[in-house]
Amino acid sequence: MPGGTMLVGYDVEWMGEGDITPGFLERIRHIHNELAIPATLFIVGRTLERCVPAFREIASDPLFDIQQHTYSHQLLKTVYIETGESVRVVRGVGLDRIREEVRRTTELLREHLGRECTGLTGPWCYYRGLRDRPDILETLWEEGIRFTRTDGRNASDWHPVELDLQPYWYDHLGFPEILETTVHGWHDSTIRDILGWESLDAWVESVKPSVDRAATEGKIYSHLQHDWSSIREDPELTATKAVLQYAREQTLSFLSYHDYHKEQLAARTTPVTVE
After folding, report:
1. What are 63-87's pLDDT values in tens digits?
2. CB within 8 A of 39, min separation 6: which ones?
3. Which of 91, 119, 137, 246 sits a CA distance of 20 to 30 A from 216?
């Protein structure tokens, strides 16, 4: 059986009332240490500012890679969401705002956690990632970003995204060292809203086909969850643990997004020509 790889990424973005994020971080750290599975936290800057002690605790753990999710969860690109029942348009921000959002969060990660940021998840994710926006890629490159996680919607700016979409380089846009790591399946917050927040088993079952295909076809499965949605109706994160355990049982290997980018960069042997 070919061996696939699972990249586990949590968008840590809660900016509302309550102690959602510290509770999530404490529990998720326990689960990942119990299972010996690495993960990446993509952190919103404002969330970091509110919960510095909790982030310092988890940043000291070698299993956790720390990257960013902009300062205030501003969309890099406009999304035009067609669900089959409705259309919703949410506009992205301009380049100056993108630069400010990324730079500010990079500085916060350095100041409070001593981490240098090279990776970014684009809020909401987008169809085709940033392949139509070399101007955004240039801005991210100038701010030190070397891998992105922005391609996570289908042609309707909706879900799911199949595993046929695998990570790719932004070679032909002139950024051969920026890797797009993609997102597969459904965003957990979206599918759980559809299935019902208390339907934990149904959500776990919805993830299994992506895990199975990654295992049998030797593919990358890039998995997305959020702090607030993971812990909603599941304070012990039993469903999250069930997903991770199932993936391990299917003999998937696990990498952080940073280590996956580093591995893929080292494996590049063919020069890239940009026309």
Report:
1. 999 999 999 999 999 999 999 999 9
2. 8, 9, 10, 28, 32, 63, 64, 65, 256
3. 119
Cβ atoms 12, 44 nearer than 8 A: yes
Instruction: Quote the pTM value.
Output: 0.96
The Cα 164–Cα 186 span in angstroms is 14
Q: What residue ranges of the chain have pLDDT lower than 50? A: 1, 274-275
Q: In CATH, which superfamily holds the domain spanning 5-267? A: Glycoside hydrolase/deacetylase (3.20.20.370)
CB proximity list for 201: less than 8 A, separation 6 or greater: 239
Write the Ramachandran bin of 128: left for phi over 0, alpha for psi from -120 to 50, otherwise beta: left
Provide the residue ranges of all domains of the chain, joining segments of one domain with +: 5-267
Largest CA distance in the chain: 51
- For helices 200-217 and 188-195, angle between their N-to-C axes, nearest 10 degrees: 130
